Amino acid sequence: MLNLYPTQIESVSLHRVGNKNRNETIFLSAEPFSLNDETTGILKEYFFKSFREKEENYFYLSNEVDVEFNTLHKIATEIFNDPSSAHLNSKKIATHLFDQSNHPHIKSGEVYVAYLTGLLLDNDKVDAIGIFKSELKHDFLQFEEKEGNLDILIQQGININKLDKGCLIFNTNKEEGYKVLSVDSNRYDAKYWLENFLDVEALSDDNFKTKNYLKFCQNFAKDVVLPAEDKQQEILFMNRAVNHFAKNDEFEESTFINEVMENPELIPEFKHYKVEKGPKYSIEDVSSFDIANKAVSDARRKIKSVINLDTNIQIKLDFINPDSADKFIEKGWDEERQMYYYLVYFNKEEKS
Q1: Domain residue ranges of the chain, discontinuous segments joined by +
Q2: How far apart are the C-alpha atoms of 75 and 227, rounded to whole Å?
Q3: Distance (Å, rounded) from C-alpha 327 to C-alpha 322?
Q4: Fewer CB within 10 Å of terminal CB in the chain, N or C?
């Protein structure tokens, strides 16, 4: 778990990176940016808001030969060994990003390299390097008193409520490639930030395994359970799957299958689906792990429990108490109307 509230920005270096494909240039500031209380508060919100709002999907810096050949790993190590070198090394980071900025879709923008202290990662205080990029410019209005009138000036700037791209490189797990957290709001070229610039691989921790196994189950429900049975059973399967994760601290696949798969005919289908689709979610060899509660909560919020009917009627099933949907909803076929129907049992209508 990451807590960014106690973070202190020790230094920020500001540069501008253009697009090589359009013959744009790079501008490197001679000195670090001079912080004051006002700019520090604004930059903290701008830098960190997107990280507080996203799922914690961690990566590590990598290289096909050895992590020491990863450009950012080398630069980050120099900064962590000597924080006073942050500005000099920020120029290397900006230059490395400029070298990757040769796709025609890549937008020019400002690059901020910050040295951060006091971050709490899994309750341990760590330092980090923040690399952030602003890309999209927005029109805004300024007003000026001029000759007895109020005049409108149209200017352009960035939206400080939304970070375009950013990453945090934590000073932990150096040998494995440091722990990295990344955001990318403008995915016009998915390889540009994560692959070409950062060169990272997903960190297969318990959060990663929990999240990906539930995503795998969600697609199994859509691809196999729904065609074999119906929408109600698809939702009920995911209800059982999420509730199994929610009430257990450890995941064991055989126990999960026995508890969640009510239709025994679907068990071989589940195993076959895992062989076929498991590599996509990096769970092909995963059969046990510690369950990450945050990943379960995130999955529960995202999974829809609504049956949409072509008669403009919706039936919303309770995701907390799936037994209600199983006991009090029946599906049938009306011969006279030649239509399916759902029969719902209840004692009284609840007040909204």
Answers
A1: 2-203, 207-344
A2: 52
A3: 9
A4: C
- The Cα–Cα gap between 289 and 322 comes to 25
- Is it the case that residue 320 has pLDDT exceeding 60? no
pLDDT tens per residue across span 131-153: 999 998 888 888 989 888 999 98
**Alpha helices for the chain (secondary structure H):** 37-53, 71-81, 86-100, 190-191, 206-220, 226-228, 231-247, 253-260, 267-277, 293-302, 322-328
Cβ–Cβ under 8 Å, residues 119 and 125: yes
Contact indicator for 132, 115 with CB cutoff of 8 Å: no
The neighbour count for residue 339, using CB atoms within 10 Å, is 11
Task: Calculate what percentage of the chain has a pLDDT beyond 70.
Answer: 95
Residue 324 — pLDDT band, cuts 50, 70, 90?
Answer: low
C-alpha span between 340 and 246 (Å, rounded): 33
Per the listing, tokens 């040998």 go with: 175
C-alpha neighbours within 13 Å on the C-beta side of residue 156: 6
pLDDT digits (tens, 9 = 90+) for 195-216: 999 999 888 888 889 989 999 9
d(CA 79, CA 127): 11
> Tokens for 57?
């999907």
pLDDT in tens, 27-48: 999 999 999 999 999 999 999 9
Nearest-angstrom CA–CA distance, 80 and 78: 6
- Give the chain's length: 352
Q: What is the dihedral of CA 82, 86, 91, 96, to 10 degrees?
A: 70
Rounded to whole angstroms, the Cα distance separating 26 from 166 reads 19
Cα gap 230→237, rounded to integer Å: 11
Residue 26: partners with Cβ closer than 8 Å, 6 or more residues away: 15, 16, 17, 18, 94, 95, 98
The Cα 143–Cα 153 span in angstroms is 6
Which pLDDT score is estimated for 319?
A: 54
293 pLDDT exceeds 80? yes
- Continuous H helices in 82-159: 86-100
> CA dihedral defined by 332, 335, 340, 343, rounded to 10 degrees?
-40
